[in-house]
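Progress note, sequence design subtask.
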């Protein structure tokens, strides 16, 4: 099966607990995986990367970051050496209700002081039949190590990555200055990530 010419990354922070597992927090991050000679490097941009944030506050509100970028590096010979980086500009968050976007980016995310948020992996590890991505998540200027389950589907002309996990927003100081407003928002957020990229290799379009 041949992949198409474009890919998609979907990364969502979903308010509420849901059924996603809670990401663990390693005390020490392992060294970043060294790039391999056969590494396939894919630049992610607004054409191939979508970042949404769904926040539960009485009802569910969806934010979308209009400015986003990243890099996916895949090694066919050594898949565990593959890496992922995602970056968003917090001031670019938009929502159906402008007031929701304004509160989220200027109050909770403090976009004026912290214009970027993102994730950078260090290693991809295997435990039994399961894969876990270990790296650093940055929100509101605070970077913490996280370890979460990952699904990696490798096809001849396509790479497909899926992840779903929860984090505590207060671990990253994602809080509102107004205590009543802060108390109305769920304590956990669930990150759902999906990556699809067309591979650059002989025989693929």
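Output:
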């Amino acid at each position: 099966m041949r992949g198409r010419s474009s890919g998609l990354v979907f990364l969502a922070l979903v308010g509420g607990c849901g059924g996603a597992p809670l990401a663990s927090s390693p005390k020490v991050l392992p060294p970043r995986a060294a790039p391999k000679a056969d590494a396939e490097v894919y630049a992610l941009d607004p054409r191939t990367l979508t970042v949404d944030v769904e926040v539960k506050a009485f009802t569910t509100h969806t934010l979308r970051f209009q400015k986003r970028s990243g890099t996916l590096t895949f090694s066919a010979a050594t898949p565990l050496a593959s890496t992922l980086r995602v970056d968003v500009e917090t001031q670019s968050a938009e929502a159906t209700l402008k007031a929701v976007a304004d509160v989220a980016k200027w109050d909770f995310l403090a976009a004026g002081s912290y214009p970027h948020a993102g994730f950078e992996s260090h290693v991809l590890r295997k435990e039994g039949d399961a894969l876990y991505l270990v790296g650093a998540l940055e929100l509101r200027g605070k970077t913490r190590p996280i370890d979460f389950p990952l699904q990696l589907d490798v096809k001849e002309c396509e790479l497909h990555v899926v992840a779903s996990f929860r984090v505590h927003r207060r671990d990253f100081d994602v809080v509102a200055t107004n205590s009543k407003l802060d108390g109305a928002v769920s304590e956990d957020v669930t990150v759902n990530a999906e990556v699809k990229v067309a591979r650059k290799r002989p025989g693929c379009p």
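Helices lie at 98-108, 179-183. Work on this subtask will continue into the next period as scheduled.
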